[in-house]
Amino acid sequence: MSRVHDVIRQYKASVQVVRHGVEIFVIGDPAGARLNAAVLRLAHTVRENGNDVMGDLQRAANALRWRRMTQPQPGEFHPAITEAANAVVREARELRGAVADEALLDDLAAAAQEVRQTDSPVGAELWRSIEEADPSICAVVASSNRARAGLQEWLNSLSVSVLLPGELGEVSERVEQLYVVGPPFFFPPSLVTAPAADELTFLMPAWFRHRTIPVSRFADHADGAMKARARERTVGDLSESESPISDAESIEDTYYPQPVWNGRTSGDREPGPDEAEAWKVLLAGNLAIWLDDGDRIRVLDPRQPEGERVTYAAVKDVVPGTYLVLRDGETEHGAMYEAALHLMGARAAAIEETQRGWKMALEARLASRGARASISELRARGVRSAARVQAWTEAKLISPKHEHDLVLLLQWLGLAVEPAHRNAMALRRAVYQASADLREELEDAVSRADLAALERDGRMSLEIEREGFRSIVVAKVQARSPYTEIVSRPHMRAPFFDRSSEWLE
User: Fold this and answer.
1) CA triple 269-274-277, angle to 5 deg
2) What does 296-357 look like in DSSP terms, one character per residue?
3) Which of 81, 300, 336, 493 could make an S-S bridge to 331, C-beta 3.0–4.6 Å?
């Protein structure tokens, strides 16, 4: 299909959406409403008391509410909602005697149990609507990878595709009806302003009050900007108990599960010789890593064709949704270095000697001049990556990213350029070869893996035969800290247990 054809098709769909509007099915969900009221009350209590003694309970309850709203499939297709409900009950039980408002704990536990025991009416309405419209002309839009995986497993028998908002370019021409699972508030404006089908319907629980159709932030400044009207249709039992929390307070409440960052603890000091600045990256499966500003990191893209799924991404491109491929328990970097030396054979000893020589000279220069002065001098000489000079002392970091930077660095140190430069480049090529060999083995392991389970759970293990790489973890990035911490270099990129990501999507 040509791009011109795509544009014409999208324009026609836009005309239909403007003409007929966007439909919003507002569906009664008494169990979800009870949970929502209890969570709002909990959030109000936490804000009023100004402490985080109920933090774990609040995060579990938020996750349960979010899953009720965006993943309405029946319980047998939804173990994640049972997991969150059980956590709410457990956390509420552990807080008894520690907080004054035990009635709130009782309400939360009871609401969680009711949500666990009752299927969402939103799911029932979605299924009914698809069957009524004809499954062959329908597609479903989910809010996240996890939601998409669960909904797809449930809807497989209807042969209906479930997509993310960013994948709507893949919608078949035969699709006339898009069902979006969740409130418009949580979806990008392009879903409406650049529709992929003639008819667009949002399905959401009645207890979520914000039903405004998303509009581009440029709409108010554009001449003839597209603005679709909303047509609400109520379904089911809309009765709800009155909430003691006002609408104004509920608007401020965070529905989407958020990471918890405690602020930078390492202060403004300079990193030591064996330290570096790193971002904390939270991963699915209660894992995390410290990510330095190195050039790249291995990733997996499950949407790519077989043989092209394992590749590298720049550190700056590691964002929520990225799947990192990590050596379980420690970093891949050291093992690749050792594999490269093995490939060098008899040349390995001479290469190690020149590497050790210029790194010792660099450590001595940094100790005498200081990091800041050294960076300034190197920049004056034209070294592009001078800011990373302290990282170059690390034994298994081969050289600066740019080859000419190594030449300039050696000259600044007063050392002969050769054979140190030639040896470093040979070792770098050997690392690339070892990495390529590992990639082939990883691709083979991925081809045998259950990628649908990876999208649902956010994590999986790959078993390969290579020495030193018996267990590889693939884990989805849940969040990346907005600031860096100073961390010991041996801890970089090595997965470790961290509960901070437990309830993130």
Assistant:
1) 50
2) EEEEE-TTSPTTSSEEEEEGGG--TT-EEEEETTS-HHHHHHHHHHHHHGGGHHHHHHHHHH
3) 493
> Three-state SS for 417?
coil
pLDDT tens digits, one per residue of 392-435: 888 888 889 889 999 999 999 999 999 999 999 999 999 888 88
What kind and span of H or E run contains 488? strand 471-488
- Token pair recorded at residue 64: 């349960």
Helix (H) or strand (E) holding 6: helix 3-20
Angle formed by the axes of helices 403-412 and 420-447, nearest 10°: 140
State which H helix or E strand residue 92 sits in: helix 79-95
* C-alpha to C-alpha distance for 491 and 33, rounded to whole angstroms: 45
Contact 461, 472 (CB under 8 A): yes
Model pLDDT for residues 338-370, shown as the tens digit of each residue: 888 888 899 999 999 999 999 999 999 999 988
Contact 495, 287 (CB under 8 A): yes
230-244, 370-384, 395-409: range with lowest mean pLDDT: 230-244
**Tokens for 28?**
């009664």
User: What is the pTM for the complete model shown?
Assistant: 0.76
The pLDDT mean for the chain works out to 86
**Are 332 and 326 in contact, with CB atoms under 8 Å apart?**
yes
